Amino acid sequence: MEMPQGEVGVIPDGAYKPISAYGIIGDMRTAALVGLDGSIDWCCFPRFDSASLFAAILDARKGGKFQITPTAPYTSTQRYLPATNVLVTSFHTDHGGVVEVTDFMPSLERGQELSAYHEIHRRIACTRGQAEVEVIFEPRFDYALSPVRLIPRRHGVLATDLDDDAVALASAEWVWWELEDGRARTRLHLREGETTWVVLRYDDDEVNPVESYESQAKLEATIAFWDDWVSRIRYHGPYRAEVERSALVLKLLFYAPTGAVVAAPTTSLPETLGGVRNWDYRFTWLRDASFTLYALHVLGQYDEANRFMSYLKRVARKSGDHLQIMYGIGGERHLPEGELTHFEGYRGSAPVRIGNGAFDQLQLDVYGEVLDTAFLWHHNNRMTEGLWSLLARLADWVADNWRRKDSSIWEVRAGVQHYVFSKVMCWVALDRAIRMAEELDLPGDLDRWRAERSAIHAEVMEKGWSEAKQSFVQYYGTEALDAANLLIGIVGFLPRDHPRVRSTIEATIRELTSDDQELVYRYINPDGLPGDEGVFSICTFWLAEALILAGDVERGERIFRRMLRHANHLGLYSEELDPTTGEFLGNFPQAFTHIALINTAQILEWAHGRA
Q: For residues 62 and 65, what is the distance between their CA atoms, to the nearest angstrom?
């Protein structure tokens, strides 16, 4: 069922909302998607990559949800409280009543320590007239594979499975719950000025009085936490609101216990409706994490970089002869891919996958992203002997292995090739290692690193360039283009206004953009999978960046501003867009896209002489 962004009527049971119709809340250990209809349709406990408790976004009938919605017809809007990740959904009923549902997950308690529990607090307030609200609590443990037992309690409902999982749902003592077929339901009659709370606590087998959860105090503490974090963002340009929201999204995607970063908090939201390009993104891609830290670093948020560098050292020590492209958020190396065949998938898009079979692919570009991040990081931090030993080992590995074929940044499953972007990022890896060693007088095989850096450059200029297309190509021997090559000038492989950089930009616009030349495909040649995909949001931002840095600031900013209009009602982005309808595709919200937004806004500040 389609709906305008930011406004929704009653959703029929079993129907799917657009991906764009959701906001996100989280506690930097897990996250939940809250729809414009007040329904939490996705949440995993206790970690991002745990089995789901609510998964209606992947199967509207079986997946489970936690919904708060007026019983009368309504329209709804959503907003975040300023400078926070506290989400407010406002319902305006046809009878004149207005109800606000405020959702948040407290991440920190007093003293700035992680909460011992995972909690979702939901405040229901009638702000005008009167309204009847229905609350539906439909937990489904272990991706809806485990039976659920609901037990009435004096202060709410206890949900358990046959193993050890338990979820307590607390409500006011006067609330009466009807339990049937694994669903708890109640209706609340509220008048103007009346407020009540419902609180979900994971891994607790006691349902306490709702007052004991201190929801209002935790709300105030959560607002203060986010407000303090946002106050340290250094960007003050004309796109402050968009940059701030993107930074807040990225912060939510950090896994606080280890310093890892997930690419997105969801799995299997499709790149094509009804198609098979459905992947699990609830892991730490070193590439995505590095780009995330780069974006936060330029905004002056340094703590996250320090935590991630510690995470990187831990996983790298266990990685054998080379880095994996991704790890679990706890440092896990083995991420086998499976399918949830009992789920129909978002709007029939099967299979629903958990795990990611690309974890053992060789992707050479990841070394460039990691060493580029370390290069940026070292300007504000002390380089330790142990960290430099790790980074030098990575540079040695690149010097030994850059001539190998790989699977590329896009994790193509059609076989390995000599991908141009991968070679460029090998050059970046050696370049940043050399520069750090020179700046800090650190030991390393600099003569060899310099020689291999020059060899990479010469080979890419010869074999990665097409005279016919006047562009760098996707891999040696093809005429196909790749939007990742827009980064060649951005990462410094060539000067940003070099003729080959400029002509690659023009070729990308000519061959890889939608009909209106507004949105960018990552590539259009066959990749070993059936079906098509949407335009990639990050690639469109890359095009804007490349144009700005090449000197075409007006054109780049125009593309950037157009892309801002493709955000949802809360300023959030998925991985891809349908080029015709603008509908969101792929996992959501996507770190990569928000990273590129921040970087482009920052580059515009530099181009206009404001930074």
A: 9
